[in-house]
Amino acid sequence: MKKSNLVSLISCILLFASNTSIAAPNFKASILQYNPKLGGVVESKSNIISLSQRNKQVCWFNTGLKPNTIYHIKQTILSPRGGFFSIPAGITLANEEKTRHAIVSTNKASADGIVSMCWAFATDTDPVGEYSLQVKVNQDEYPALKFTLVQ
Fold first, then answer.
1. What pTM did the predictor assign?
2. Residue 101 has pLDDT above 80, yes or no
3. In a domain, 34, yes or no
4. Residue 4's beta-bridge partner residues?
5. Is residue 121 part of a domain?
């Protein structure tokens, strides 16, 4: 079972915001890894996530948005059969095989104009294989991030 992870989300936002100009909407999706030596997160050089590496997460960020404004978010995740995704304030629709998941929510941009989300794969019940995450913010749809979950 995956849930968005708010604790590491703040660190991820700071990493992304420090490397991004906040003037116009700017989207980025990547695999982030917690580095205890640095006390923060770094962008992974690989799109492979091992279930034994609990410090990697799939994150996306949209910066340069209108501050304190509500945005409609649709995340489409393709997974191996039997995947499961949920967020506290959203609706998840999945096909019968649980290979296509549409997670719909509304998110308020921060005072800095940032909307973001991270997904953690923290249980050994998550199916291994190929995944993709595609995000739509209001009417803007962004390219999918493809990644692989391994044991």
1. 0.81
2. yes
3. yes
4. 119
5. yes
